[in-house]
């Protein structure tokens, strides 16, 4: 037993995370073959995005191996996180979801973003994806 207590914000975040897995599965029939880092990072990202947008603007998601904050990095410019080589910004959550379609690996997702969208920070995508994939 541990003494973790969850706030309503935590329950919201956890629920959003799980619903995102469900929606991803619906979006793409290759879901079962997707890299774990792809599935968990996407769910972590939507969890971060929706929890902040829908009532808890101070919500901070945690990261660990596979559960990266790349969605956050792709969307915002985050001057505090230059350790993550986050020079990327300006993608929308809708673009990130669209680029997931057909993506089985971490690189597939990145390559779809390059292929589908013009973004001035695109030249830094490789650094960002590599930095997150290297988290132990
Ligand atoms: Zn998950």
Task: Give a concise summary.
With 136 residues, this protein is mainly α. It is 53% helix and 0% strand.
Which characteristics define this entry?
136 residues; globular; binds zinc ion; single chain; 53% helix; 6 helices; mainly alpha
Query: What integer is the average pLDDT?
Result: 89
Termini Cα gap: 27 Å
Give the low-pLDDT segments: none
Beta-strand proportion? under 5%
Number of helices: 6
Molecular structure report:
The protein is mainly α and 136 residues long. The chain has one domain (8-133). 53% of the residues lie in helices and 0% in strands. It contains 6 helices and no strands. The structure holds zinc ion (ZN). Zinc ion binds next to helix 1 and helix 2.
Helix-strand layout with pairing:
Layout: H1 8-27, H2 36-53, H3 70-75, H4 93-100, H5 106-116, H6 125-133
Helix pairs in contact: 1-2, 4-5, 5-6
